[in-house]
Amino acid sequence: MSENENITNNPIIVCEDVHKWFDDFHVLKGITTSFKKGEKAVICGPSGSGKSTFIRTINRLEEHQRGTIIVDGIELSNDLRNINLIRQEVGMVFQQFNLFPHLSNIKNITLGPMRVRKLSKRRAEEEALALLERMGIEDQAYKYPAEISGGQQQRVAIARALAMEPKIMLFDEPTSALDPEMISEVLDVMRELAHSGMTMLVVTHEMGFAREVADRVMFFDEGVVVEEASPADFFDNPQHDRTKLFISQTLQH
Amino acid sequence: MDNLAVTQEVKPPNTKKGPVKWLIDNLFNTWYNTILTCFALVFLFFVFKGVFTWVFTQANWRVIPANIQILMTGPYPIEQIWQVWIVLCTLSVLLGLSAGIWHGLVFKLSIAIASIGLIFLLIPLEIVNFIASIGPTFLFTPLELINKKIETEPGTLELNLNFISLIFFKRRWLLGCLVLLVVTFFLGRDKHVLKRWVIGGWFLSFPWTMIMLHGFGENPVSTTDWGGLLLTLILATVGIVACFPLGVLLALGRRSQLPAIKWVSTTYIETIRGVPLITILFMGSLILPIFMPGDFQLDKVIRAMIGLTLFSAAYMAENVRGGLQAVPQGQVEAAQAVGLTYPKTMLFIVLPQALRSVIPAIVGQFIALFKDTSLVSIVGLLDLFGIARSILGNPKWQGNFVEIYLFVAAIYFVFCYAMSYFSQEIEADLGVGKY
Ligand SMILES: Nc1ncnc2c1ncn2[C@@H]1O[C@H](COP(=O)(O)OP(=O)(O)OP(=O)(O)O)[C@@H](O)[C@H]1O
Ligand SMILES: [Mg+2]
């Protein structure tokens, strides 16, 4: 499945020499890469290598201090208008779901459409219910996040991001906080999303998912992209020692 | 061994319940607890006996009905008291409509307020003295004896024993307010078109109250004549309504990324929290006028309102900040990732969660503010507490300070308890600790 007919040649995200420091700690050390429209990239690497930080710079949850990031033709700068525009185009799914606990599931989903896209309540709810159906949890619409399982919560979170009709979806370890039996229900949804042609950047340790869905696997270590290749090359023919070590370690588990 | 049979036979350990069991468990479980319980019972008996005898035979409750007017509204001229009632009627209408439209919490709030009204309506101030003259057994005294007593002691005849005339004539305004509340509740039921008007009405209710109390035309009632429970309620309401948004803004300011805003908020909060309320009230009433340009004088009551508001806002800010800190950073990130701007993130995501977790502290602050209004009596305003003191200044009532203070305390208690009760209702309604 790695040959994806949906990919176009226009890059939708362009990163040029992106650097990021936390105080004195150099987390991203010059990332230069680009992602095409419809591309699915899986990002992996050891803990603390800067994977989360990197995808969070793409919707400005983290600010980069050097280099440029251009998302769908808009450069990320300190201009708040640009940031808000980009955030509407980039959906994000978090490891810890981060659902709003004081709102019912459907309100979690309709909040953005109503307050940012300015949809009417009725319209937003129709769309939300359609999304929940797509996620296979339409019967959970009027419950609260605390009342449903982790896998269901993560699917609500995906629906919440999709409700903004983003062009790009960022996933930061979406299945790491889930019990094994719930991982597959979330991966199924992500797989379906991938087939629909969404541009996806996925930080994950689910190597099966990477092999099956990804167009490209990027390996991060200590703030640099050590290796990037198609899944077949990456898993079966890794070039760098660090990549080899990482693959052998992850596949053991 | 048949395992199934064994599990079926197991019954919960035999735990007797009931009052006797409770008594034995809690009060008589060891010999020294038994002794303690006996001592406590003897002690309580004497205390209650003392209180009972005092309340029903020694206390002179006449002081309350004789001063009820001044306790409620202070020196407010009696011939213009209808202006106060007009205000209360207006508020009753607004509250009734709101309860009908919004149900839930607003409905419970109006229940709480209506019960306070009902207490005032039904409390038999006028016959309290009569009861006292008969003693604690009045309930069991035959009617003939009561009639005989009225004949032999002409003083008691003045007392208005007729409950009907008490409620329908002397308290017709209060009754009217309660009726309005109920009627407008049914009128406003589910009339969602009225929403905007009612909200507008609430915003206008404050200027309307001030204008109406002040009156127009030839005989305006100066704010120095506002007093008693009326003044206490005005000060407390304005303080509560104004200090809340101010406190929220200060709390957000203190957590702001912008150094200037952060510094101003922090300095304000720490300065105010570092001085007693009484100094702020003195500043407002004595020192501020010195610096005021020319003959511009801010009204005394307004100065007290500002002082109370500024003071509570600092504490409110710290309570709210505590709540803000309890909201995980992930919530802000999730909101931002959906594209919400900072103000919207605060309004829809952070503040609802933050405030929900500090409702007890916030309501505690409101209750403290309500009681703190009594300090304005020191700067010369005649609030409920100030009035109580001024009544005691009258040689006729000098000896009745216990009765007066007990009554005043009871009024404070009724309002504070209503707030406390309402806060529990809010928590239950929002499902605190559940979601
Ligand atoms: N807000 C922060 N302040 C300071 N240091 C941070 C902050 N966030 C992350 N770091 C540090 O930056 C480094 C990279 O963090 P990042 O979260 O990007 O790693 P990661 O590759 O996602 O790791 P993991 O697999 O554990 O999620 C880590 O060493 C982390 O301690
Ligand atoms: Mg991470």
Write the layout of secondary structure elements.
The complex is a heterodimer of chains A (253) and B (435).
Chain A: E1 11-22, E2 25-36, E3 40-44, H1 51-58, E4 66-71, E5 74-75, H2 80-89, E6 90-93, H3 105-115, H4 121-134, H5 150-162, E7 168-172, H6 180-195, E8 199-203, H7 207-213, E9 216-221, E10 224-229, H8 231-236, H9 241-252
Parallel strand pairs in A: 3-8, 3-9, 6-7, 7-8
Antiparallel strand pairs in A: 1-2, 1-4, 4-5, 9-10
Helix pairs in contact in A: 3-4, 3-5, 5-6
Chain B: H1 3-9, H2 19-26, H3 31-58, H4 63-73, H5 81-102, H6 104-122, H7 125-134, H8 143-152, H9 154-158, H10 163-170, H11 172-188, H12 195-214, H13 228-254, H14 259-273, H15 277-291, H16 300-325, H17 329-337, H18 342-357, H19 359-372, H20 384-393, H21 401-430
Detailed description of the structure:
Chain A has a 6-stranded mixed beta sheet with strand order 6-7-8-3-9-10, with helices on both faces. In chain A, α5 packs parallel to α6. In chain A, β9 and β10 form a beta hairpin. Chain A has 253 residues and is of the alpha/beta class. Chain B has 21 helices and no strands. In chain B, α14 packs across α16. Chains A and B meet through α2, β6, α3 and α5 of A and α17 and α18 of B. The site of adenosine-5'-triphosphate has 11 residues of chain A, from β2 and α1. Adenosine-5'-triphosphate binds next to β2 and α1 of chain A.
